């Protein structure tokens, strides 16, 4: 793996594995809106757009639909964005202050809702997102405080609350330790891949509920040389990604 | 045609304690802050606020004016958690109707359309239903038989919004990238007050901007207030961006100290205090 100068590429960092793992959420997604929240999901969505998901729509984070070079190709103010959500042609990757084994997510408050110990953002668009379009999650610091047995307030709807809702889908959860899905008979969380350098014990210690672990857990895939070049030289030359997960 | 221009103080003199007030903008974006400041100078209290919340909610909550809040979030955008709102919630200072962003929008649509509710998919399965025991569901009468939340109309006694330009009759224009929901707030309200950066002649409105920038129609508007810098410290693109330094001062200064320093006098005094403070 060498570049034009003959300098060997530095091995992928943890943040770069996370970018790849987030990008994979949008593989084969087709002509839909990718709505990433957070630095690493944003890099992942743009990487997917530049490589294996070229038909994705992306916003500038405000009211414009933009191509990767910044060219405006459409207008999407909040009111149209909310309508697009209910149309279903979107895959959002949200954050989570808490997430449980069924994929229920909380960003509203910690403690008793009537008088919270810690007021957070509020439910925001989590209820409409989870009932209408695929919703994945990104958790930059995997810990027992986030991966909890039961969330204090169900904002994003998990499998035990969805009641078979028609358009409910939680494709994946990406953390700084690995990738998770719900491919189990009771739709509880399963370890899908471990980022290189992470052990099973680390994930177990950082998760407050019983996680399904298959007999053989694959590593998160390696980035290609072209993907590393795009991340390092085109999408994030200032390495803002390192600030979100460390190394 | 009637001239609807008035001062912020005249607007507030038409508001009463116990009213349900809708506040336009979104988070820390194009909030009618001059009207909120006038409200803070008045003795109007015990209000129900309906808002995609930002510092409007934070200030009114800190000042103890809020009986009930209807919202999907409260944020300062560049500072994700609104500190004064947060403190008020953690001391149980007011009642809360916490709903999803889309439920909120459809609640305004229902009110603007004089409907008792609109069916929405959002909310089903979430704790929005648990914390709002008054919310009802409705089942589709067609073959699909799907169950929806019957989002009740968010009818307002008064709406307060801020736009870039308006004429004296209440035709309001936004010039930034996003209209937010200000037209809906006005249509959902019995009375609506529009503050603007500049009042212009009607013919000026379409001289340099396209007619689709004419967001608010005069038949939904009761009063027009010329309030230059009236969204400060929230953003009001393209006239100005958010005053991040001042927002940080707001977020990090204890409320009584902030209120004494910046909200003791009129709007003119506010502007001078902001200039001195930065």
Automatic annotation (TrEMBL), chain A:
Keyword Metal-binding found: no
Keyword vocabulary terms for this entry: Transferase
Stretches that traverse the bilayer: none
Database matches in Pfam families: CoA_trans
GO molecular function: CoA-transferase activity
Family per similarity comment: Belongs to the 3-oxoacid CoA-transferase subunit B family.
Protein name, entry field: CoA-transferase
Organism name: Streptomyces curacoi
TrEMBL record, chain B:
Alphabetical keyword list: Transferase
Highest taxon of the lineage: Bacteria
Pfam families tied to this protein: CoA_trans
Gene3D superfamilies associated with the record: 3.30.30.40, Glutaconate Coenzyme A-transferase
Any one GO molecular-function label of the UniProt entry: CoA-transferase activity
Protein name: CoA-transferase
Species of provenance: Streptomyces curacoi
Source lineage: Bacteria, Bacillati, Actinomycetota, Actinomycetes, Kitasatosporales
């Amino acid at each position: 793996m060498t570049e034009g100068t003959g300098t060997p590429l530095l091995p992928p960092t943890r943040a770069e594995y996370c970018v790849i793992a987030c990008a994979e959420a949008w593989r084969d997604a087709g002509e839909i809106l990718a709505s990433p929240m957070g630095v690493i999901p944003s890099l992942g969505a743009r990487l997917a757009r530049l490589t294996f998901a070229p038909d994705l729509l992306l916003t500038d984070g405000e009211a414009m639909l933009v191509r990767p070079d910044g060219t405006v190709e459409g207008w999407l103010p909040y009111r149209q964005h909310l309508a697009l959500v209910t149309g279903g042609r979107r895959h959002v990757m949200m954050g989570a202050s808490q997430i449980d084994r069924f994929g229920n997510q909380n960003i509203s408050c910690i403690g008793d809702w009537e008088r919270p110990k810690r007021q957070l953002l509020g439910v925001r668009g989590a209820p409409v997102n989870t009932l209408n379009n695929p919703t994945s999650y990104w958790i930059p610091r995997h810990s027992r405080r986030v991966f909890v047995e039961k969330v204090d307030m169900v904002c994003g709807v998990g499998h035990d609350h969805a009641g078979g809702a028609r358009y409910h889908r939680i494709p994946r959860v990406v953390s700084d330790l690995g990738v998770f899905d719900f491919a189990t008979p009771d739709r509880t969380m399963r370890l899908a891949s471990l980022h290189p350098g992470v052990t099973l014990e680390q994930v177990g210690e950082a998760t407050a509920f019983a996680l399904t672990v298959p007999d053989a857990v694959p590593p998160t895939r390696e980035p290609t040389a072209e993907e590393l070049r795009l991340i390092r030289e085109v999408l994030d030359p200032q390495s803002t990604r390192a600030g979100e997960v460390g190394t | 045609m009637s001239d609807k221009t008035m001062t912020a103080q005249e607007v507030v003199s038409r508001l009463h304690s116990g009213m349900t007030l809708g506040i336009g903008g979104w988070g820390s974006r194009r909030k009618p802050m001059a009207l909120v400041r006038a409200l803070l100078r008045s003795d109007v209290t015990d209000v129900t606020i309906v808002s995609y919340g930002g510092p409007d909610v934070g200030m009114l909550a800190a000042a103890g004016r809020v009986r009930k809040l209807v919202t999907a979030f409260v944020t300062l955008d560049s500072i994700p958690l609104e500190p004064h709102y947060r403190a008020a919630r953690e001391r149980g200072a007011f009642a809360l109707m916490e709903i999803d962003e889309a439920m909120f929008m459809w609640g305004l649509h229902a009110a603007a359309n004089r409907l008792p509710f609109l069916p929405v998919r959002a909310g089903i399965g979430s704790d929005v239903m648990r914390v709002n025991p008054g919310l009802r569901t409705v089942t589709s009468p067609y073959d699909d038989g799907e169950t929806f939340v019957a989002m009740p109309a968010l009818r307002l006694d008064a709406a307060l919004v801020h736009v870039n330009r308006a004429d004296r009759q209440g035709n309001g224009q936004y010039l930034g990238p996003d209209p937010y929901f200000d037209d809906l707030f006005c249509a959902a309200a019995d009375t609506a007050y529009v503050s603007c950066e500049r009042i212009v002649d009607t013919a000026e409105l379409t001289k340099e901007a396209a007619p689709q920038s004419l967001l608010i129609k005069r038949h939904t508007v009761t009063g027009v207030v010329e309030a230059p810098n009236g969204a400060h410290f929230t953003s009001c693109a393209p006239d100005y961006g958010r005053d991040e330094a001042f927002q940080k001062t707001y977020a990090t200064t204890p409320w009584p100290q902030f209120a004494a320093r910046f909200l003791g006098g009129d709007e003119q005094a506010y502007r001078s205090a902001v200039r001195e403070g930065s």
